[in-house]
Design brief:
By secondary structure, the chain is an alpha/beta fold. It has helices spanning 14-19, 54-64; strands spanning 3-8, 25-31, 46-48. 24% of the residues lie in helices and 23% in strands. It has a three-stranded parallel sheet with strand order 1-2-3.
Length: 71
């Protein structure tokens, strides 16, 4: 059985590290927008919120949360 996981705000890539041990899982990461010029290395299925507005972020999470077993 494949476990589908939605990770929210995984800036430190903790979820990606855990994915090495969770062989039967699909992980989708949605991060917060970046304000600085620093670069983050992201692997795979990583999405960004389009805005810092909390209500817009909650709306986005509510739209996609039913596709996942764990948030």
């Amino acid at each position: 059985m494949v476990i589908k996981i939605l990770a929210i705000g995984d800036i430190a890539n903790v979820i990606r590290t855990m994915s090495k041990y969770l062989k039967k899982s699909e992980i989708h990461v949605i991060n917060f927008p970046r304000e600085n010029s620093g670069e983050f290395t992201s692997i795979g299925d990583v999405e960004e919120f389009k805005t810092w507005k909390v209500m817009d972020q909650v709306k986005k999470i509510n739209e996609i949360k039913n596709k996942y077993d764990l948030c």
